[in-house]
Amino acid sequence: MEFEFIYKRHSVRQFKEEQVPEATIKELIKAATYAPSGNNQQNWHFVVVTDKNKIAEIAQLVVEKNAELSTYLRTEAKIKAFKGKVGYHTVFKGAPALILAYAGPYETIADMLVADGMPQAEAMQYAKSNPGIQNVAAALENLHLAAASIGYGTCWMTGPTYAAQEISAYIGFNKQGYHLAAITPLGIPLSDKRSSPPRKPVEDVLTIIG
Questions:
Q1: What is the CATH number of domain 4-205?
Q2: Per-domain residue ranges for the chain?
């Protein structure tokens, strides 16, 4: 049994300068929207940035937010570790396109229980599955697989979202109840070489109950 369309996907952090056609972007977003979502709420919204200067500015916003947040850390080890991640959090700066995946409101049973009087601390046990985020994650995975299947590279990124407010303000996106959940660069990989970290053996992550 072969699932090559899945195994072709890997994290790409270096891209050719070639622009991604708008028609291709639209097809990839369409593929994303065919993901399943709880109650078919489709609580996702995608913002695509293709201007190189704007992408560079978004990366700079992440750099500045990283520096700001590091001032709240109490030990040199934590500061060094957090600042050391900023390079990984800005690898999208060289991509010809940047996709911002936003998650919108999704009412869960926990929300309803709190509204009807259950203490929030007790109700939160029913919110752990977080279906609103799962919906967006499923859509983004569709996008990654679709992109890889036609020769494009992506990289699932949530680290830069600590600058979500600054990024959303910069691009002028303000949709009621939506927040930045993840981002991915998009472009043709600079190299054909694939590099994926090893996966845990299936036996370590699988339980079959007959």
A1: 3.40.109.10
A2: 4-205
